[in-house]
Amino acid sequence: MTASMQLSQSALSSFSRCRRRFFLRFVRRLEWPAPLTGSEQEWERSLRRGEQLHLFIEQAALGMDVQGLVEEAGDEQLSRWWNSAVEHPPAQPTGDVHTELELMVPFGEHRLVARFDRLIVAQQGDSSAIHILDWKTGTPQQASRLARSWQTTIYQFVAVEASPSLTAAGIPVRPASVGFTYWQAEAPQSPVVLTYDEAAHKAGRQRIAAEIAHIEQRLNGGEDSFERTTDLDACRHCLYRSYCERGREPPPGIDLDEDFEEGPDGSLEEVPL
Ligand code: SF4
């Protein structure tokens, strides 16, 4: 029997990608091996730049004039992303806007947590609708990949399950009334818009339950149950390579793994044992 876990899309993405990585990051909670190589420093700069863009968008939504801050940053790529965000914002409904909203819902004995870049609750007659917006700064992803990502599954599921706490009358929002837009800074004019429905919500619940059961099984089996992936591509830019004898020096180039997008501290994803 395992203790209650608090799981985010990061933890579930990590587990899907490599059991060992999940163990090192979320169970052992190991820090990155130091010192960072040149490529990893570049990766970290890229991560910080993405965070900066999120912050500018959040500040602008609060009515602040951030143009001066963007110029002060003196970062060409960040300026380009910001200009794209201003010139090609994603369509979004009118309603109550929540930025950097963290929601947590129970899932059996465990908890699922999601932190939304922006979540809008709109009134539609007697009922409410939710629209999720997420800003992405990595390599643009196809709609099909985003649709089957753990982020989409967790965010849509948590939005529906937490919806009574978001609506004035405490009435749950139907899955079919949950929209999701991924805006990608490197493809600003082609936002990916996803829909949701009751069947997808049921499938999401089953997917999450199955994955949690796999995690529990391995936790019960101990450390040896968390094997290294056989997909060496997954190791190419993994910051835990040195723990796995998968090479210390990564090849050049940035490949921002989606399960690391929330930052290196893993602060959202605790797996208390
Ligand atoms: S280096 Fe490879 S095997 Fe090791 S944790 Fe990373 S992805 Fe898994």
Key traits:
273 residues; Lambda Exonuclease, Chain A; six-stranded mixed sheet; alpha/beta; disordered C terminus; 6 strands; binds iron/sulfur cluster; globular
In short:
The protein is α/β, with parallel strands linked by helices and 273 residues long. The protein has ten helices and six strands. The chain is 40% helix and 20% strand.
Identify the overall geometry: globular
**CATH architectural group:** Alpha-Beta Complex
Q: What name does CATH use for the topology?
A: Lambda Exonuclease, Chain A
Output the structural class: alpha/beta
Please give the alpha-carbon distance between the first and last residues.
10 Å
Oligomer: single chain
Strand-residue fraction? 15-25%
| Unreliable stretches covering 5 or more consecutive residues | 251-273
Provide a count of the helices.
10
Bound molecules: iron/sulfur cluster
Detailed description of the structure:
There is one protein chain. The protein has 273 residues and is of the alpha/beta class. It has a single domain, classed as Lambda Exonuclease, Chain A, CATH 3.90.320. The chain has 10 helices and 6 strands, in the order βαααααβββααββααα. It has helices at 9-17, 19-27, 38-61, 67-73, 76-87, 143-147, 150-161, 198-221, 232-235, 241-244, and strands at residues 6-7, 96-107, 110-124, 127-136, 178-184, 187-194. Strands 1, 2, 3, 4, 5 and 6 form a 6-stranded mixed β-sheet that branches. A hairpin with a 2-residue loop joins strand 2 and strand 3. The longest helix has 24 residues, at 38-61. Mean pLDDT is 86; it is low at 251-273. Iron/sulfur cluster (SF4) binds at residues 18, 20-21, 24, 228-229, 234-235, 238, 240-241, 244, 246.
